[in-house]
Amino acid sequence: MGQSRGPDQNLDTQQVGGDTVKLASQKDFFSGLMFTIVGLSFAIGATNFEVGNAARMGPGYFPLLLGVLLTILGTLITVQSFRSKAPDGDPIGRIAWRPLGFVLGANLAFGALLVGLPSLGIPAMGFIVAIFGLVIIAGYARPKCDIKESLILATLLAVGSYGAFVYMLNLQFPVWPAFLTA
Question: Rounded CA gap, 118 and 114, in Å?
């Protein structure tokens, strides 16, 4: 079953029958694999809802369609990864932990600030504070983070988002912290 690899065998080669198949692009292979897995997950998850048909779409129709399209795209990218003409095999670099941590943390903070965490006693801070928290935390993903740039970007994003979601679309969610509006 499991073959041990010698020191001269790279992770981007596979033994198939008597032939060696070389990945031309590790990046394409793993991103295509990820797209395929996510697409399949969405397509399978969408079947838990009523799908309907093109004339009368149910809540599962759009996720199913997107899941199928993402699966097809992922499969095409994975197959293409064996044909790429990258000279060095286009290897995957190291995982960038700093940006990954700050961007994921910023999204979690956005959700917590937007609606609060009543179980931990954190009140809802509203849309504007959540946007500022998101942009400032995500800004630290860059090595040379400038808080002034983050504040300017957060202000522009908050004004634009307020105009789009609250003013034009009339979405109902807390805009300001509860203690300011009470």
Answer: 12
